[in-house]
């Protein structure tokens, strides 16, 4: 019978991607609800040293597949490796990050195993028992984000989902113990149906707001594109980044990479400053998991105050420069 929750542990240049660590944390919750184990699938060359790290993030065991053929990500050999794991181990659930690699790999595996795949999930849970089994409920935005759809895969196994980066919470316990096993896949030259001539790495200047511990987020209430410079000063003082609601992205005031929300990024910083943001449901969906939310809004009934830990009713233009000044003064005093 199918069992256990498997996570495709995506690595690039030997670095396990953050979304895979998030998935391991989520997988421990799902496995806990099922009374099953979490298994990570680690594929690459010279990556075995990373297996222990996966255990500390939630894996009970790690299957390591090492081969020259899977040194770089190539669809065919990776799909073959994951399919072999599924065939031999019969997992109940397999999770992938909704990254370029996960979005390429998961559909291939789903087609080969004749099972379903729910893409770009923002929530996973184990549902109540139905017909003697507990199914994975996979939730994702549908119809352009206007509704949230919960999808179940009742008749085929494994149940598979790709999950949006930044949504699930990382759980880290350096004391966790687990098992590391080599898993053999018989690769043949024909598996490599493309030849990698050169790997070119783009110097990515774009920021990743999901990585920032502090976000200074501006909404339509900032009034103009130019005011982002003022938010930048506050972000710099706090060691964070500037982000935005969709209103300003749609207005062309700031790039889409910095948009927080249902159709933007999901963030969980230690501090989220919501400045001139009303708190529409689609915005909240991307930031309500932040540790501390401070909102500034001139309308005391703005819904953002319902999720804020601290709310300031007032004109952000009067408050932001004072805040920047105060943070800078505090830092200067602390250095003395
Ligand atoms: C399918 C769909 C997907 C969406 N996805 C997203 C998404 O990913 N992210 C997102 O953010 N939105 C998204 N939206 C849009 C969302 O519904 C809202 O329209 C948007 O979040 C509003 O942005 P805002 O809060 O900046 O602007 P507004 O709603 O216009 O709010 C501006 C706020 O600023 C306050 N304000 C004005 N001047 C000042 C001042 N001087 N000082 C202090 N406060 C001031 C006002 O009181 C007001 O509360 C989506 C909508 C749909 C339909």
Q: Which tags fit this structure?
A:
336 residues; alpha/beta; seven-stranded parallel β-sheet; five-stranded parallel β-sheet; 26% strand; binds flavin-adenine dinucleotide
Folded structure, characterized:
This protein is α/β, with parallel strands linked by helices and 336 residues long. It is 29% helix and 26% strand. It contains 9 helices and 17 strands. The protein has helices at 18-34, 51-56, 75-89, 100-112, 227-238, 246-250, 281-287, 304-307, 316-335, and strands spanning 5-9, 11-12, 15-16, 38-44, 61-66, 93-97, 118-121, 123-130, 133-142, 147-151, 159-163, 179-182, 214-218, 241-244, 271-275, 292-297, 310-313. A 7-stranded parallel beta sheet has the order 7-11-6-1-4-5-12, with helices on both faces. A 5-stranded parallel beta sheet has the order 14-13-15-16-17. Strand 13 (214-218), helix 5 (227-238) and strand 14 (241-244) form a beta-alpha-beta unit. The longest helix is centred in the C-terminal third of the chain and has 20 residues, at 316-335. It is globular, with a radius of gyration of 22 Å. The termini are far apart. The protein binds flavin-adenine dinucleotide.
